[in-house]
Amino acid sequence: MTLFEDRRWPAGWHGCVRIFAGFSLVLLLSGCGKTWHEATHEYVQYSIQADLPADSLLEAYLAPLRRQLALTMDDTIAEVQGTLTLQQPESTLGNFLADLLAEEATRITGTPVDLAIQNYGGIRRNSLPKGPLRMGMIYEIMPFDNMLVVLELDASGLIALIEHMAKQGGWPISKDVRYQIREGIPQAILVDHRPIEEGRTYRVAMPDYIAKGGDRCDFLTAYPMTDTGVLVRDAIIQYCRDRQASGYLIDAGLDGRITQIP
Amino acid sequence: MKRRSFLKKTSISAAGMLLSGGYLAGMSDPERYKLTVLHTNDVHSRLDPFPMDGSRLQGLGGVTRRAAMIQRIRQEEPQVLLLDAGDMLQGTPYFNVFEGAPEFTSMSRMGYDVGILGNHDFDGGLELLDKQWHLLDLPILNANYNVQGTVLEGRVTDYRIIEKGPIRIGIFGLGIELEGLVPASLHGGVRYENPLPVAERTAQLLKKKGCHLVICLSHLGYEYPEEDRISDILLGEKTRNIDIIIGGHTHTFLDQPTVVRNADGEAVYIGQVGWAGVILGRMDIWFEKNYKRKWFTCSSTTIGDIRN
After folding, report:
1. 3-class secondary structure, B42
2. Among residues 198-227 of chain B, which lie with CB inside 8 Å of chain A?
3. Torsions phi, psi of A257, nearest 5?
4. CATH fold of A69-260, please?
5. Minimal Cα distance from A123: which residue of B?
6. Coil, helix or strand for B40?
7. For chain A, what is the radius of gyration of the CA atoms?
8. Domains in chain B, number
């Protein structure tokens, strides 16, 4: 038994073990006055699920707000061909977002970007289900009012960014990049089929949150930044609407752009 | 988010009986007293249940069902404390469109006793908090945020002492490092202080003021791979006088509280219930009049089917 070495004890064992210690202390301190102490804990979790009754007063308050939201948020803006999911190091939802950010940043600025990234923690839905893509889902994926920006990174800045992303298990990145992660360290990095070149400037699209040092990216703040003037969320919405208008479905696959080496 | 299998219960009546038995025992004995602590964290503007779209948490959550559940528990229990560990805001269009008003209003209507600011509660900037603060009918506690000179001055305080019958409960809040997480333009002048000394000092003060129970509401996060990064586990281990930590930020689904030993070797209970309000956590604490804190026992149950 490793009760005393073990930092965390299963709660149930706790009482039995400590009764021995507690007993001697009670004897020692029995001269003091009695006061209130915790004696027993019981812990319960309630799953808040569909068959529970709803509070009618709160529902009466919320219903008009929900109806108002539905006017815009229930709009179908595109159609998803197969469910997209979010995972690390690479995922269909992550690839979809990073690729569209590269495309939109290129379109808006009129100059091609080399790549786009999106911080993993900044994607707030784990999946986009097959079927109609409603406006509200885009808000849930990207609730933040982050701007889409383009950062001009030198070779060392780009390497530092990829190292940072690899250490955190891989963030969504656009299709022209390939790398492997071994024990949290990136290797075999290729951008457009070539290793990162000294002396070259890379145009990297990303949310301004990251460019301004968010998610521990303070090493990026020194690089020149161009603001597209478009919210990341609006870029996603625009892309989806354009796909729909041209008769395409929303789809993304895996291509091994980031691989985890065991 | 860890995948866990939860103990399934087909009906909530079984636990209802169990708990009301304890309640009766608590009332009939002048040397026993029961307190019920309910907690949520990281609700993230999830006022409606997740839609039935095949996602992992589909159909779960929703503020009207949580309100009814809380109401029901209040009818059964003499003393209820309702707590939230931050990130009330951001995550659904409710926040983008109504700017926090429905979140704050519904928390006030449910009768939350105390809340704290998580990092995402700054997402609308201090202007949003300033504008909507009047809707918050509950104290907001962040002992390690220095808010002097901001619109939060006089609004965000360090701690609150709440009396429930003969029991004095001291509650204080801790917020996460804002640098690198929240753009300066949004938290405008709120200064983060090292939570460890603040926690040590505040918990000691609360015990000195005669609190029988000290609860820390924390948005620091449950645990991190980096050994020295402050978390609820480290906080529990390195301080004294905190009895319970109700945590948030890492969206950790703990099916029962984790127990660590503090710097004095005393037990600290750490709880966190995932996110989005899909679970309401409940800790029933029986107090007894004793000469010294007795080492207590803990049992745990999960009610309902949690698809995860």
Report:
1. coil
2. 212-213
3. -65, -35
4. 5'-nucleotidase;  domain 2 (3.90.780)
5. B91
6. strand
7. 26
8. 1
Whether residue B196 is contained in a domain is answered as yes
| Residue B89: count of CB within 10 angstroms of its CB | 26
- For B168, the token pair is 């004095």
Nearest CA in chain B to A132: B53
ipTM of the complex: 0.87
Q: Is B20 on the interface with A (CB under 8 A)?
A: no
* Cβ-proximal residues to A23 (8 Å cutoff; 6+ apart), any chain: none
- State the residue for tokens 């209507």: B109
- Residue at B294: amino acid letter: K
Work out how many CB contacts closer than 8 A connect A with B.
267
CA distance A32 to chain B (A): 6
Question: What CA–CA distance (Å, rounded) separates A229 from B168?
Answer: 53
CB contact under 8 A, A69 and B94: yes
Find residues 22-41 of chain B whose CB sits inside 8 Å of chain A. 22, 31-33
Contact A139 B123 (CB under 8 A): no
CA–CA gap between residue A73 and residue B179 (Å, rounded): 33
Q: Which of B64, B73, B108, B258 to mutate to test the interface with A (most CBs of A within 10 A)?
A: B64
| Closest Cα in chain B to A59 | B64
pLDDT tens, position by position, for chain B (308 residues)?
333 333 333 223 333 334 444 444 445 577 889 999 999 999 999 999 998 887 789 999 999 999 999 999 999 998 999 999 999 999 999 999 999 999 999 999 999 999 999 999 999 999 999 999 999 999 999 999 999 999 999 999 999 999 999 999 999 999 999 998 998 899 989 999 999 999 999 999 999 999 999 999 999 999 999 889 999 999 999 999 999 999 999 999 998 999 999 999 999 999 999 999 999 999 999 999 887 665 566 677 777 654 33
Report the gap between the CA of B65 and the closest CA in chain A (Å): 4
Residues 6 or more apart whose CB falls under 8 angstroms from that of A71 comprise none
Q: Do B97 and A68 touch (CB under 8 A)?
A: yes
User: Cβ distance B307 to B57 under 8 Å?
Assistant: yes
CA neighbor of A46 nearest in space, from B21, B128, B23, B71: B71
> Is B166 part of a structural domain of the chain?
yes
All residues of chain A having their beta carbon less than 8 Å from the beta carbon of residue B213 are: 38
- Measured between beta carbons, the chain B residues lying within 8 angstroms of A47 are 6, 60, 278-279, 302-306
Residue B271: which CATH number?
3.60.21.10
Contact A138, A57 (CB under 8 A): no
Domain encompassing residue B207: 3-18+63-302
Token look-up 């992303």 returns: A165
Q: Which residue of B23, B122, B229, B259 to mutate against A (max A Cβ within 10 Å)? A: B259
Contact of B239 with B199, CB cutoff 8 Å? yes
Alpha-carbon gap, residue B243 to B259, rounded angstroms = 10
